[in-house]
């Protein structure tokens, strides 16, 4: 579950959680009075013009930023009261796709995707197969050993997506994840996100892509100048009830020779994912 | 535990064969996810630490040598006391010697051979020394060796103990003059202790400067790899994992510098020791009248290098690199959630 309670964010302020001491700052707040709850297993679109604060909201959800005031609760952990050690463990259960990919420039595509598993202490023999499979699924089987600088923007974005989902996160936040993808790749990504959501992952996607919205109607959080607008966005609920049991009615595995662009492929591939609890 | 895993062992060579450049690129890079091999000053830090290590080794060796000299002087010279008998009482030499030898503080007493005394004076008086005997009679010298307990007492409180000893000897054999080497040796020992204190202070200062150099290098590395650190932080890497990346690299560089510095110190130390040994060898044949220095040449043998500081300095450099990097990185990370 994801709960924002009276959240305010001011960049440059000493972020020490809630408290009355931050009102006097000169800079205007980037985020103001955000209060909403996203239930476990929900799928939410985060919309708003550039500069509205979408990335900031996602960073708060990813627990790499503390609110200046108010409380953010992620996967049952109140961020302002959590110890740093516990926040690090919490972040391992959150997948994030960044607008600017944020791949490690010194690691190959393979090692970038493998990093979350290595941080979690998974054995190399298990990890190797999983990473290779996921990279193959995002269409980068032949580029496992390429450095990010040797990949196109779209390829980097796919590596970033693979890295975000490899550890089967309980929460996935994606910041304009289709920005560098063509229409077909964007559809495949959406199918992956929907499938992850179907097996229980809470998904939040910031996007400008109207076509995606039409393809997958879901509750919307609309930001404008750091505030939530529209009553509908204040308390979004999942459009469809998420399937209770992970993988309950997962389709049969795709045949080995399925073309990569087959819309069924992502569903078949990720149906094996068991998310890391919620 | 050396048994290969039955499941993975056959797979590994196959995987290597399938992707021949994997060994060259993949695993090696994956051990350096933050790219610190480039970011953490590759030459500057080891160079600085090497200079520090050279200074530290020389200081430690100097302090060591001073301490060793002091100990030997005290053990050797404090144990020896020279008693002088006026020439007029030359015939009583044997009686006085026996009386002194009977004292509880004295282990042995020996009358110095007049021929040797003349030999000692020859450089100043030339051949006239032999004829001088009748004109300017030489005093009789009696050499005493104190018991270890008495020598230790003299080394501890030279001034007071020398006076007390002189009084005891004077009571046993009236009319003698006592010269305890302990007094000037004690002053030399105090000088050696001061040298040793200075050496320790230099060591502490050098360690502090080395830590500062590592701290600056690590902060520069953090600045250069800020984005990468933020990424792995976002992926859930703990402070310990991130700090260990930097600490491993910094410790390795510092240890390399430490080894380099210690290695550079070896020829310097050998040169100094060689000079010291030849100086003392030219000075005389280990004369009993200067027993403190008589003990020294053995210590200044070329092969006898101060191995403890030589080995401790690289280890210390490693520890300084590791600890400083850990503290620096963890402090920086505490500004993140
Ligand atoms: N690290 C930062 N430091 C200071 N200001 C920032 C930082 N990140 C974002 N901002 C500011 O916060 C506002 C919202 O930015 P952002 O959350 O990136 O919006 P969006 O993703 O909707 O475009 C912008 O005005 C931006 O300038
Ligand atoms: Mg943004």
Topology record:
The complex is a heterodimer of chains A (278) and B (337).
Chain A: E1 2-9, E2 31-38, E3 43-47, H1 54-61, E4 69-74, E5 77-78, H2 84-91, E6 94-97, H3 109-119, H4 124-137, H5 153-165, E7 171-175, H6 183-198, E8 202-206, H7 210-215, E9 220-224, E10 227-229, H8 231-234, H9 264-270
Helix pairs in contact in A: 3-4, 3-5, 6-9
Chain B: H1 11-18, H2 22-30, H3 36-39, H4 44-77, E1 80-85, H5 93-101, E2 106-111, H6 114-125, H7 128-135, E3 140-146, H8 148-156, H9 158-172, E4 177-180, H10 182-224, H11 226-234, H12 239-283, H13 291-294, H14 296-299, H15 307-333
Antiparallel strand pairs in B: 1-3, 1-4, 2-3
Helix pairs in contact in B: 4-10, 4-12, 4-15, 8-9, 8-10, 10-15, 12-15
Bound molecules: adenosine-5'-diphosphate and magnesium ion.
pLDDT < 50 runs, ≥5 residues of chain B: 1-28, 283-302
Instruction: Indicate the overall shape of chain B.
Output: elongated
Radius of gyration of chain B from the CA trace?
A: 33 Å
Using a beta-carbon cutoff below 8 angstroms, give the protein chain pair with the largest interface and the number of residues from each chain: A-B, 38 and 33 residues
Number of helices of chain B: 15
What name does the CATH topology of chain A carry? Rossmann fold
Helix residue percentage of chain A: 25-40%
Structural class designation of chain B = alpha+beta
Uncertain residue segments of chain A: 16-24, 231-278
Radius of gyration of chain A: 19 Å
- Residue-averaged pLDDT of chain B: 77
Biggest sheet layout of chain B: 4 strands, antiparallel
Count the domains of chain A.
1
Oligomeric form: heterodimer
Q: What is the H-and-E element order of chain A?
A: EEEHEEHEHHHEHEHEEHH
If classified by CATH, what would the architecture of chain A be? 3-Layer(aba) Sandwich
Order of helix and strand elements from N to C terminus of chain B: HHHHEHEHHEHHEHHHHHH
Number of DSSP-assigned strands of chain B:
4
In terms of structural class, how would the helical and strand content of chain A be classed? alpha/beta
Organism (chain A): Caldovatus aquaticus
Biased composition (Low complexity) (chain A): 233-243
Domain ABC transporter (chain A): 2-250
Protein name (chain A): ATP-binding cassette domain-containing protein
